[in-house]
User: Fold Membrane protein insertase YidC from hydrothermal vent metagenome.
Amino acid sequence: KITNLSETSNLKDVQIQAYIIDMSNLSEETKKNPSISRDKALNEYLVSAESGIKRKGGAYKFKDKEKESFSEGVEWVGFRDRYYCALIRPSVSALGYFVDPIQSDLLKITYSPQEVNIGPEESENYSSVLYFGPENLDLLKGYDLGFEKVRRYYRFGLFDAIAKAIYQIMHLLHKVIPNWGVSILLISVVIYFSMYPLTMKSMTSMKKMQSLQPKLAKLREKHKNNPQKLNKEMMGIYKENGVNPLGGCLPMVFQMPVFIGLYQVLWRDVSFKGASFLWIKDLSQPDRLFLFPSSLPFIGNEFNLLPIVMIVVMFFQMKLSSKNMVATDPAQIAQQKMMGSIMPVFMGVIFYRFASGLTLYFTMFYMFSTFTQWKITKKS
Assistant:
């Protein structure tokens, strides 16, 4: 929904075509003296958001930001939510834009045009192109208005670049097999094999560290009053056995940008909205296998199968990882058992109301991790 706020402007032409509205306003000078036209009322619009721009029932409060100056003006302005965006581009670069929340579901967007001299009994045409629709990269590129730049996952360049690369790969996979659920499975396979050397190295290093725990425990007891001696002998054991104390962590650090980028793609890609896979009717929503007659604590009235599957897979993975763990302290053994039970349930609760597309990927991720853990356990 868009409303022109000017009562004096002449709405000359409106053309609507597939999310695009092309509007022209005519500003006329009826006086015999020249004037300068820069009437903000000609360029003010109300933008309505279907789900509302709000937090906790009230209007969304924009954060204060220092004013920025642009020597060449600003070409377009817009805002976006999870799946959709509203973009406005005038025919000429504007000096600035103003976005003000009116109420929970309305924004007022104003742009300040360049000053235009209007001669006696002349007129000036102000035209704007407005886009209201999905944040679909191919669609936005097709308009050739620069609107595709609205697609930004992160402010940090590395995460944003990785997310965009994953987006492109996933859409290429979808062209091969046109089902978004299958695309998620395929991207999980691609990421697994690309990260396999790092994952294997991390798990192998952790396994070696576990095997050294009895020796390290004896050293801690022997040199508990001499930290320098303890540290020196521990480093000697690490070197003797070819173990890097950070070997289990560093490979995971390198993988984190990929997981962070992937999360945003699976969460925000409008392609998943309404896409079905197996029993899942909408990959942008929880899988909702069936509904309970009444609401239950923590889970509501929906039975979501995928998070339950993820809990089971995580449980087996943690069982495998702790199967050959060497612990001499009874408290440490009890802590390991507790983590093996609590962590899967904790993750299941977090993912219970997540989009099923996101849960589907992480379920596959834990399946692959379990397989890798099994290979290492079998080898050892």
